[in-house]
Amino acid sequence: MVDITQVLSKKTSFWDNITQFNVKALMQDITSYTYNINWVEVATFFGIGLVSGIFFKRYFASFVIILFFGCAVAGLLDYTGIAPINWVHAQNLLGVVPSHATLNSFIVSAVEWAKLHTAIVGYFCFGFVIGFKIS
Questions:
Q1: For residues 10, 15, 19 and 24, what is the CA-based torsion angle, rounded to 10 degrees?
Q2: Per residue in 91-111, pLDDT tens?
Q3: Rounded to an integer, what distance in angstroms lies between the CA atom of residue 49 and that of residue 36?
């Protein structure tokens, strides 16, 4: 038997209200956000986004070039046998298991987290865009 209180008390996320075009729930979410704003949280995630945007614009090309060059050198040294890499040990050291299911579950859980924390993601994105533009 289904308990009606559990069905009625289920809280939908802000993103679900947008995709389902639930205007009443959207207005309740917006009014609850405007009156219950945690300004420390806003400043923290906006600041992290701002710094991330600045570093991304300034150093992304250098980071990609260094990462590509490092992987190419490591692959070449492993291929020629000069410095063989024990890939099983490296995966165990990093805690990585080569599986597509792990990556898929990570992506799904990250999207679900972002849906539940829409405001935090918004603060970060807003700070990231401003940091990207000012650098």
A1: 60
A2: 788 777 666 666 677 788 888
A3: 22
